[in-house]
């Protein structure tokens, strides 16, 4: 065999190995959608990828079993609010930490770094009492405030700071010469230049809030206030056993739209995670 | 002309006699960081101090008021309560299973996918997809696939004549199942971190080595692997910390069972605090988790310093 043939054979082996390795990553999604269309009896019968009987009814029952449309909306609006708030707060603080000199800056950095390292689980108990004291139990406030100001928000702040540090200072100084205030420089010059960082923060923050589970579990109790992950884990019969076909239909409804957006913007989304992983 | 007037105006306002430029800049900076800082005080520093105090109290929400008991809870956890060491053991097994598996798979995938070839984007997209999926959704689907009777995995095993175990009902298998499904979910993240690191290595190194007649393995073990060391270190610590924090995955897949076989630290804190309302004891557990995560982080920083020297 020539060198070239060996090369091709080598490539082919790798590709086949990768295809096999990809099965456990892809198959659960396919099986989830397929099972979402099946009846309970068919679900545990002989495995077929295409349902024998397409039970569209599952997707209606999902909405009658619990207020699923409302829960879907809750997740969506909370994720958008958390994203917007995080963008504003993280880019403000990140800008100050990158560009301004002020007493206490070093100490503040140290504080924030320590917050980055402490998992939410450590502070969740006092935060529970705080929210109860403030009368915010079974509202969406904890699900908005805690992610925004928690370790994730701090990570976003550092990501913005790193990006601002790498920007050229000249434009901002020119803006100051032209009589812009600090706030004006931030809003009109620094922010427009840092669109890639803002996009990255927006993407990871949206997904972070969308997938959040511990906080909703602890702070929210009525069905109308549930978010998606909580709603998904709640498709059980009166014995606490899962209503598999409904649960998988609902899970499909929750996951597939995100997957479609991911497939369209996969490059941007993966890069956002790479950025946050490296910096965070 | 208007420009000159404008400039004059701005210089005048910025030279208010009662506020020096420096003080003004400082005030502005604190305005910028204040939302972040106030949130930090209320939702992080305050609660962190509170949890230290709670951990020193005997406090069950259902039966009693908080009473100060000193280190009693720590004694209870570390010396008396057999559950605690069982949970620690589970967490350590979980980490020891997950971290090497995750990192080995991530590195293998990254090595295969760091250079462009036909289909590389497809594979990267596929291996990363579970990362963006909610852990609850992922756990729901895998719990379904791993059902003992009529579950898909066991049906496939039956085709080749193997009777699969009741995966999530036997402690050992349940732990293995939780680890493996968690690795599949999260490996994409470490994969892209490794890919980024691999792409940052100059191609010349490898070419030069190849010209010298080095084999693929030699190139990997003597050039690539040492150059990846800082990335490996970061990934190792992030993944280990992440493995101590895992909660939603276990909540949905096993609920800590069977026979507490998958009861790990984060889940134990939730259980003690929010199921049994043992606020004092749960806070003690939270403090212990805090210490573990801090220790891991400090180890990372020290190793990194050592690596730089």
Describe the structure.
The complex is a heterodimer of chains A (280) and B (309). In chain A, helix 4 runs parallel beside helix 7. Helices cover 76% and strands 0% of the residues of chain A. By secondary structure, chain A is mostly helical. The model of chain A has no long low-confidence stretch (mean pLDDT 91). Chain A has helices at residues 3-36, 40-43, 57-65, 68-99, 105-117, 120-133, 141-149, 151-166, 170-177, 182-193, 195-210, 214-219, 228-232, 244-264, 266-279. Chain A folds into 2 domains: 3-57, no CATH class; 67-234, MetI-like (MetI-like fold, Orthogonal Bundle), CATH 1.10.3720.10. Chain A contains 15 helices and no strands. With 309 residues, chain B is mainly alpha-helical. Chain B starts with a helix and ends with a helix. Chain B folds into 2 domains: 2-43, no CATH class; 81-308, MetI-like (MetI-like fold, Orthogonal Bundle). A two-stranded antiparallel sheet of chain B has the order 1-2. Chain B has helices at residues 2-14, 21-54, 72-80, 82-113, 120-132, 135-145, 152-159, 171-199, 203-211, 216-245, 248-253, 265-275, 279-308; strands at residues 57-58, 67-68. The chains are: A mainly alpha (280), B mainly alpha (309). The interface between A and B is large, with 93 and 91 residues.
């Amino acid at each position: 065999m020539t060198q070239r043939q060996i090369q091709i054979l080598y490539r082919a082996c790798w590709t086949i190995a990768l295809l096999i390795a990809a099965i456990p990553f892809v198959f659960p999604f396919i099986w989830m959608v397929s099972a979402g269309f099946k009846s309970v009896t068919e679900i545990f019968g002989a495995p077929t990828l295409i349902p024998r009987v397409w039970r569209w009814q599952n997707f209606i029952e999902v909405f009658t079993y619990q207020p699923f449309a409302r829960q879907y909306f809750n997740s969506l609006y909370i994720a958008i609010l958390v994203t917007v708030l995080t963008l504003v707060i993280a880019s403000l603080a990140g800008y100050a930490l990158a560009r301004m000199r002020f007493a206490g800056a070093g100490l503040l950095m140290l504080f924030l770094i320590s917050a980055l390292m402490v998992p939410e689980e450590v502070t969740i108990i006092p935060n529970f009492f705080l929210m109860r004291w403030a009368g915010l139990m079974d509202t969406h406030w904890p699900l908005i405030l805690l992610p925004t100001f928690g370790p994730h928000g701090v990570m976003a702040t550092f990501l913005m700071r790193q990006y601002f540090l790498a920007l050229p200072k000249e434009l901002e100084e020119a803006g100051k010469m032209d009589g812009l205030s600090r706030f004006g420089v931030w809003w009109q010059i620094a922010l427009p230049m840092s669109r890639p960082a803002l996009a990255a923060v927006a993407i990871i923050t949206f997904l972070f809030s969308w997938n959040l589970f511990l906080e909703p579990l602890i702070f929210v109790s009525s069905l109308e206030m549930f978010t998606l992950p909580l709603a998904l884990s709640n498709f059980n019969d009166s014995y606490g056993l899962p209503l598999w076909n409904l649960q998988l239909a609902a899970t499909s409804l929750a996951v597939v739209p995100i997957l479609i957006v991911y497939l369209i913007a996969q490059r941007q989304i993966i890069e956002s995670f790479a950025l946050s992983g490296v910096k965070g | 002309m208007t420009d000159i007037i404008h400039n004059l105006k701005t210089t005048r306002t910025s030279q208010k006699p009662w506020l020096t430029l420096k003080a003004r800049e400082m005030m502005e900076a604190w305005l910028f960081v204040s939302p972040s800082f106030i949130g930090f005080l209320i939702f992080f520093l305050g609660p962190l101090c509170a949890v230290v105090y709670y951990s020193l109290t005997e406090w069950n929400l259902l039966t009693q008021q908080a009473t100060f008991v000193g280190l009693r809870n720590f004694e209870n956890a570390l010396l008396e309560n057999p559950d605690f060491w069982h949970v620690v053991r589970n967490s350590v097994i979980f980490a020891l299973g997950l971290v090497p598996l995750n990192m080995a798979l991530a590195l293998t995938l990254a090595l295969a996918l760091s250079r462009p070839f036909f289909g590389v984007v497809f594979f990267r997209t596929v291996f990363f997809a579970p990362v963006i999926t909610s852990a609850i959704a992922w756990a729901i689907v895998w719990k379904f696939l791993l059902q003992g009777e009529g579950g898909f995995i066991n049906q496939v095993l039956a085709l080749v004549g193997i009777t699969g175990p009741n995966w999530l009902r036997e402690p050992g298998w349940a732990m293995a199942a939780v680890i493996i499904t968690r690795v599949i979910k999260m490996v994409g993240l470490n994969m892209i971190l490794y890919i980024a690191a691999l792409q940052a290595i100059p191609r010349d190194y490898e070419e030069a080595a190849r010209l010298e007649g080095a084999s693929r393995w030699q190139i990997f073990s003597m050039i690539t692997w040492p150059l990846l060391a800082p990335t490996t270190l970061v990934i190792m610590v992030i993944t280990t910390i992440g493995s101590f924090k895992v909660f939603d995955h276990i909540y949905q897949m096993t609920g800590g069972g069977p026979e507490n076989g998958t009861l790990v630290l984060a889940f134990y804190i939730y259980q003690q605090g929010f199921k049994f309302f043992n606020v004092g004891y749960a806070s003690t557990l939270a403090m212990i988790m805090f210490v573990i995560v801090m220790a891991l982080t400090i180890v990372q920083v020290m190793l990194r310093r050592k690596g730089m020297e």
